[in-house]
Write a structure and sequence with these properties.
alpha/beta, binds 4'-deoxy-4'-aminopyridoxal-5'-phosphate, 12 strands, single chain, 351 residues
Length: 351
């Protein structure tokens, strides 16, 4: 740390992303990326001609992409916002709606408390129930904004639409952000609730179900007024937040519904296979609707399982934190990768 860093940031603990190792080839199941490449239409859309246009700034309103998203999801373009990953959208939300504080589940996406710190927002972590589910009564009349990942991460557990609606109804004067980064693997989106609730903000991403983590593209759906607020943040911070190539990639990806459905179905099938195979080896596996599972071995500790997998060339995610230290989060990879994970797990457990 230099002697110049602002005092308020000196004690800040930054977010720790999952490793992106370059030292050897791993089976990489640690950052919830898709095992499949982007749609062939994305690859076609990024050609030499488009690359040569990189000398020009991109459209700050990202009109083509916003219109394609609005059409696909049956919304008005004024109800759609796009961001440099959903992380950026979340950051704009903290800036715009953090004045009274923001609460979130105590076990959830690691960025929520980090954003509280950097934006000087009063964060409040609300404990989960013992079975890792969210107690919705804890989110009623909270007097501050709310952010909930649905499915939650790293558990993969979902709230129902009825539960989300109860939270919206109980907090009419505060923004409720539903982070649907993992919604496309069998969960239900809160999109149908948009017409009824002007305090609902839905946040999604192209990083998981549309295989574009490296393109950095997230989006939000909300009332025109809430989207206007987010745009105010964006145009005061980073007007050109979506680069030209990502914009084209996004449009091509959203238009290729068949490819999207095929990848999502494959991941759900592989998730079922992996869950069953690990359960047969004595693991506790939480009921996941995401492209990962949160699993606890019975014979060895979470730390040991994580370490032994790493030594064997398989990367998963592990947190040395109370309540979850016995678990690891395993991204659902390709069929072959998950068969290898199961085989290596058998070797580790000597069964
Ligand atoms: N929300 C949740 C719950 C996540 O796990 C992630 C992925 N790390 C994100 C948002 C951010 O995703 P991205 O910025 O790649 O859209």
């Amino acid at each position: 740390m230099s002697r110049f860093l602002a005092e308020k940031y000196q004690g800040m603990e930054p977010y720790t992303p999952g490793e992106q190792p370059q030292d050897r080839k791993y089976i990489k199941l640690n950052t919830n990326e898709s095992p499949y490449p982007p749609s062939p239409k994305v690859i076609e859309a990024i050609n030499a001609e488009e690359v040569s246009k990189l000398r020009l700034y991109p459209d700050p309103e990202a009109k083509l992409l916003v219109q394609a998203m609005a059409k696909h999801y049956g919304l008005l373009p004024s109800q759609v916002m796009v961001g440099n990953g959903s992380d950026e959208i979340l950051a704009f939300c903290y800036m715009a709606f953090g004045q009274k504080g923001i609460c979130y589940p105590s076990i959830s996406y690691g960025f929520y408390p980090v954003f509280s710190e950097i934006f000087g927002v009063k964060g409040q972590a609300i404990p989960l129930k013992e079975d890792f589910t969210i107690c919705i009564d804890d989110y009623k009349n909270v007097g501050k904004s709310i952010v909930i990942a649905n499915p939650n991460a790293p558990t993969g557990i979902c709230l129902t639409l009825e539960q989300i609606e109860e939270i919206l109804q109980a907090n009419p004067n505060d923004v409720v952000m539903i982070d649907e980064a993992y919604v496309d693997f069998g969960a239900v989106s809160a999109l149908p609730l948009l017409e009824k609730y002007d305090n609902l903000m839905i946040i999604q991403t192209f990083s998981k179900s549309r295989s574009l983590a490296g393109g950095r593209l997230g989006f939000a759906f909300a009332s025109e007024e809430l989207i206007e607020d987010l745009n105010k943040m964006k145009f005061s911070f980073n007007p050109y937040n979506i680069n030209r190539l990502t914009m084209l990639a996004g449009v091509a990806a959203i238009e290729d519904q068949a490819y999207f459905e095929q990848c999502s179905a494959r991941i759900q099938k592989t998730r079922a296979y992996t869950t069953q195979a690990l359960q047969a080896l004595g693991f506790t596996v939480l009921p996941s609707m995401a492209n990962f599972i949160f699993a606890k071995p019975s014979a060895i500790s979470g730390t040991e399982y994580f370490t032994r997998l790493r030594q064997a060339g398989v990367l998963v995610r592990h947190w040395n934190k109370p309540l979850i230290e016995d678990y690891v989060r395993i991204t659902i990879g390709s069929e072959e990768e998950m068969e290898a994970l199961v085989q290596i797990t058998k070797e580790i457990l000597q069964v």
